[in-house]
Amino acid sequence: MKKKLLTYLVFSSLAASPIAAKEATFLKPDQIRIEALVPPPPADGSQTQKDELKELHRLAAERTPAQAEKASFDAEHKDVFIFAETLGDKFTAENLPLLAALGKEISGDASEIGKAAKAHFHRDHPYTFDKSLQPVCTAKGLPEAYPSGHALNGWLLALALAEMVPEKRAEIFARAADYGRNRLLCSVHYPSDVAASKPLAEALHAAEMQSPEFQRKLAAARGELRARLGLPEAK
Q1: What is the phi/psi pair of residue 124, to 5°?
Q2: What's the rounded Cα separation, in Å, for the pair 24 and 20?
Q3: Over the range 104-117, which residues count as b (16 or more CB within 10 Å of their CB) and which as e?
Q4: pTM of the model
Q5: What is the DSSP track for 20-48?
Q6: I want to staple 118 with a disulfide (CB 3.0 to 4.6 A). Which of 40, 129, 144, 186 is the partner?
Q7: For residue 144, what are the β-bridge partners?
Q8: How far, in Å, CA of 170 to CA of 32, rounded?
Q9: Which residues, other chains included, contact 46 with Cβ-Cβ below 8 Å and sequence gap of 6+?
Q10: Which domains does the chain have, with CATH numbers?
């Protein structure tokens, strides 16, 4: 029931706030109702924004060199193989070409929808608003911050992986959550930027699951992945 509702919200009322998906693969038609899926971000000057900036300063003050290094690594990597630490040393692009191809297409969906969502909300990054914040990761990409594109990508990939290896769902989702949190440790996103990405990813994943092409490629990648990892066929 939840997946059907999410799919309805994605694909209904196409006249409202259209989002183009020119380079997306599975999300058809090419428009969604973004405001039905993601609430507006906290306003500049609001108490919520002040609290979020306080939290970012706390994280920056307590951040260890190891945390900064991990956050920087995640900032530079957006493919499905960010989950290698969860799924083991056989989880590589060379070993899993079907998964690598599907992951690239899923990331394309996340990128195109994320770009348009950011353009819809026009929220500045926290380091732009508060010049005393010093990002430890390369601050590149779009000027808008909401929702986090990295976190959206991480969750959308995680949801697909959980379809393939459901017995590792908890570990996969924990990695996706950590991947998003690293955007806060980088000092490049507000907590609400990251939080908004998960429900949007859930809605987009539900929509992708309605695509026969996605289902076909997911099944092929699942078979490849489980075989390479030596896992029995999922029930």
Answers
A1: -70, 155
A2: 9
A3: ebbbbbbbbbbbbb
A4: 0.88
A5: --TT-SS--SS---HHHHSPPPPPTTSHH
A6: 144
A7: 124
A8: 29
A9: none
A10: 2-33+54-228 (1.20.144.10)
